[in-house]
Amino acid sequence: xxxxxxxxxxxxxxxxxxxxxxxVLRTAASEHATRIVQATSLGAEDMVITDxxxxxxxxxxxxxxxxxxxxxxxxxxxPRIEARYGLAVEVFKPVTESVVHxxxxxxxxxxxxxxxxRKACCGIRKLEPLARMLAGSSAWVTGLRREQSDxxxxxxxxxxxxxxxxxxxxxxxxxWADVWHYIQLHDVPxxxxxDQFMPSIGCAPCTRAIxxxxxxxxxxxxxxxxxxxxxxxxxxxxxxSMIGASA
Length: 247
Ligand code: SF4
Prior knowledge:
This protein is of the alpha/beta class and about 250 residues long.
């Protein structure tokens, strides 16, 4: 079933939330001119943010992580964004030698063997490239929403990260219905895997479809304890080498 048919719904206050998001983006761009980047996971929320940046010509650069383990449908979104909006998406990949060494030592399925190995894989494939992406930036933009999980329930619109950069989450107060209502209204490109009951999409080995009634992020690292799932990208004081990452 199509995600739009399933989720898109106009709810009270939607226009106000869109206006506020745009205001957050414009203020962020002006306060951090040339030193701000949208770190897009290419998920539905981030596609909404990219659309707002493009539609309103907000001067914020766009970049993403290509971990080497993404679904083809996810990777294909990069040229789709560039064709649709005429914006460049800078792609950051892990260091080849690190990946080869890790896989040779621990195997292709290491992430299922222990939380430490899963986090080490995320460290190599996500956190190290993210550190390169954000080097030289004083701010970044994410698609975090309070509704996504208990650990994100108090996400503010902006907060300092562990490196002193400002992390903006302009969709913090949006619902999943808002996200899809916006996508429908503006015909925003999105990952077709969302149509296959994958609301939260990460690397292929670590993402599965969810069943009716399961929590939003139940399809991410589903074999781990719930508390272990919030990982590196959005955790303060996380040593890059030790902790995993996720959008
Ligand atoms: S999400 Fe899975 S495959 Fe991707 S970097 Fe983390 S452990 Fe590795």
